[in-house]
Amino acid sequence: MNARIAFMFASVLFAAVDPAFAQHAGDPAAGAEYAKKFCTRCHALNRRELSPEPTAPPFGNVANTKGLTAPALTVWLTTSHPTMPNIVIEPRDMDNVVAFILSLKQ
Fold first, then answer.
1. How many domains, in total, are found in the chain?
2. How far apart are CA 93 and CA 56, in angstroms?
3. Rg of the Cα trace of the chain?
């Protein structure tokens, strides 16, 4: 087994066993910049503000949803909602936005 395959196997194994290892990789600062540019038309970026769109939860509230994980947040961001436009976020931007939202957890 070559080193790359062994590393991938070990990563999957550790992610399945250790939730801390499975934490989402991304740049919260880059995610904040992306969110400011593309999300603030509807969403407040923290809990202290009201969202401009009343049906759009502030990202601070999203971050503090009980049981929220990076995979669940990714699914939430990629699933169409009746009140949310059908957005397409590039994978690297998605990683960053997820990292930003999770950084708001209190």
1. 1
2. 20
3. 16
